[in-house]
Design a protein that fits this description.
The chain is mostly helical. It contains 6 helices and 3 strands; from the N terminus they run ααβααββαα. β2 and β3 form a beta hairpin.
């Protein structure tokens, strides 16, 4: 796949929208679970215990709409659905890992920057009338 160079800081509307949806609060956690294999809805809830049922359903629908996850109705006695990664979704694993590695590598620096900013902000607030 050829990568087209883009000007720095130039994410177009559709690109920005897709990135926002893939990197939102819950998508990365759900994708990490689904990369290990197919899961049913309640299995996903157990794997990501902080997520509400509503947020999980919305996130799965959004990922399915974007072609990253597929919803499979299982041929069982009772109605059952399972979610799994598509080929397109699996292609996101390398960028996801790179982003996670960057966060891990730089978390200490980010925490120091936040503490410095917060201290400066507190000093500015104390100095203002």
């Amino acid at each position: 796949m050829e990568v087209t160079a883009m000007p720095d800081a130039c994410l177009l509307g559709d690109q920005r929208d897709l990135i926002d949806q893939v990197l939102d609060k819950w998508s990365l956690s759900i994708l990490a679970v689904l990369l290990r294999g197919p899961h049913r809805f309640n299995e996903l809830r157990r794997e990501v215990p902080e997520i509400t049922q509503k947020s999980l359903a919305q996130t799965l629908k959004r990922l399915e709409r974007n072609g990253i996850v597929e919803r499979i109705v299982l041929d069982t006695r009772h109605f059952a659905v399972e979610y799994r990664m598509t080929a397109l979704g699996r292609s996101f694993e390398a960028p996801r890992q790179a982003l996670a590695q960057w966060a891990s590598d730089h978390l200490e620096d980010v925490n120091k920057a936040r503490a410095s900013y917060d201290a400066d902000d507190d000093a500015r607030a104390a100095a203002s009338p």
